[in-house]
Design goal:
With 297 residues, the protein is mostly helical. The chain has helices at 2-6, 8-18, 24-42, 63-88, 103-106, 123-143, 157-175, 179-185, 192-217, 220-229, 237-247, 276-281, and strands at residues 271-275, 292-296. It has a two-stranded parallel ribbon with strand order 1-2. It is elongated, with a radius of gyration of 32 Å. The chain starts with a helix and ends with a strand.
Length: 297
């Protein structure tokens, strides 16, 4: 939820500076069409058929999970900032004349008149709508990869169908040269090459996000090396016991049987306490008696 929400932060900063907002239908597509459907289907991945060699993070603010959120936030800032900077450098960009890129859809024939544009119709909202919408789908693909604790994404048929339909709808809104669609969605027409540039940025974002998630955040050897570099030691009782056993040269015990005894009464004549060496040298100490032998470590 946090990862999907953080993609809106850079966009909101740009919109507040430019004094504009997304259209109503644009918000509905991002919130209901993508966020809600992905949230309801992302958790349907079944557990992996084999146990992973290590357990998942036990804390919500563990370093891998925290870095995953921070990296996705950094990718959001980089991609949206790049899109805005490239947009402002285009020769057809105009903050006042928002219909200057595609005259055929916005100018009437004969007398060239421009219809008044609505509040959300400008190049900023159109570009940021496409970029952030695709970024939300990219995040769903990356975070629902499944391995190593759950089954892969393609085994979650419902989520796969949802993602496929969302990609098809977003590509239609990006490349459809239909004036009615632009008017209903409060979008403005942009040149074809600019739409291709947006698609290229999204594809690069998908590969970079997936590589960062798999080769960095899911790289257990790298995290173990970082912990060793900073001399980090877990404070859990399990890890403390594990380190204590690793330092014990006699663990695990071999060729002998040890019994853990918490309390032995010295008044019990049927109990004989002996050291491990003495018990090995006198194996017949209790052969003809009913005494119990306890090895004392």
């Amino acid at each position: 939820m946090l990862t999907f929400s953080e993609k809106m932060s850079p966009k909101c900063c740009v919109f507040s500076q430019k004094q504009t907002l997304l259209g109503n239908y644009q918000y509905l597509i991002q919130d209901l069409g993508i966020n809600i459907t992905v949230f309801l289907t992302m958790s349907l991945n079944h557990p992996a058929p084999k146990l992973a060699p290590y357990r998942p993070p036990g804390q919500l603010l563990s370093p891998p999970l925290l870095f995953s959120v921070l990296i996705q936030l950094a990718f959001s800032v980089i991609v949206q900032t790049t899109a805005i900077l490239l947009l402002q450098q285009q020769p057809w960009f105009n903050e006042t004349d928002v219909f200057s890129a595609c005259l055929s859809f916005n100018y009437s024939t004969g007398n060239i008149t421009v219809r008044p544009h609505r509040y959300a119709e400008n190049f900023f909202t159109t570009t940021m709508f496409h970029v952030t919408t695709f970024h939300q789908i990219v995040a769903a693909i990356v975070f629902a990869k499944g391995k190593p604790f759950r089954q892969p994404l393609y085994t979650n048929y419902l989520l796969s169908i949802v993602i496929t339909v969302l990609i098809a709808i977003c590509l239609f809104l990006l490349f459809a040269d239909i004036g009615t669609v632009y008017t209903a969605m409060e979008l403005v027409c942009t040149p074809y090459y600019w739409r291709v540039n947006i698609l290229i940025m999204v594809i690069v974002l998908l590969f970079v996000s997936y590589i960062a998630e798999m080769w960095f955040l899911e790289n257990r050897e790298l995290w173990l090396w970082i912990k060793k570099l900073f001399k980090y030691r877990s404070k859990s009782q399990y890890r403390k016991m594990q380190r204590r056993m690793q330092k014990n040269s006699e663990w695990p015990p071999q060729n002998k049987t040890d019994y853990a005894v918490q309390y032995v009464s010295v008044e019990d004549s049927n109990i004989v306490a002996c050291s491990s060496t003495h018990c090995r040298t006198t194996p017949n100490i209790a052969k003809d008696s009913k005494q119990t032998i306890i090895t004392v470590l």
